[in-house]
Design a protein that fits this description.
Strand order of the largest sheet: 1-2
Mean pLDDT: 87
Distance between the termini: 34 Å
Number of strands: 2
Structural class: alpha+beta
CATH topology: Helix Hairpins
Order of helices and strands: HHEEH
Largest sheet: 2 strands, antiparallel
Oligomer: single chain
Amino acid sequence: MELKKLKARLSTAVRGHKLLKDKSDEMIRRFTLIIRENKRLRDEVETALSETLKQFSVARSLTPEYAVEAAFGMPTATVTAECSVESVMGVDVPAIELTASPRTDSLPYAYSEITSEADESVRRISELLPLLVNLAAVEKSVRLLADEIERNKRRVNALEYVMIPQLEETIKYIRDKLDENERAAIIRLMKVKSKA
């Protein structure tokens, strides 16, 4: 009976190992796709951010300090973020949807106080915000998937190198004992027949 139970456990462990291995492979495939998207977004954001910061530097050098503080300290739009969760291979990753509603009174400063470089800087940074939020969501997804891949890999290794070999060894030991008992019973029967 114990041998039958162990065989069933071994069969379940082998099937579970195969399923976990397949899941791990698919997660790694999806992970590489998300990593590529992350790299593309990061490059795009870094390029746009460096251009925007250059524009801000130029605007700041051409405009008096008090005007710059007033202009850059006020929002040009109202942004609301709707956060939800998507499932990627059983891992919950963030999905953020931004909704921007521009100000009704145009820009929050007087055109006579601020240069056109400042206008351009404000416009660029407002265009950059959705990219930054998207990049943050993708990077969080990468981190969550990496953690789950690591956990899954530990499970696969535990099954492959610990549990399955132990079950196989125990099954072999029980089979050997049962074969030995069977041979002993046959020898006893032969001795009883020879005496009779």
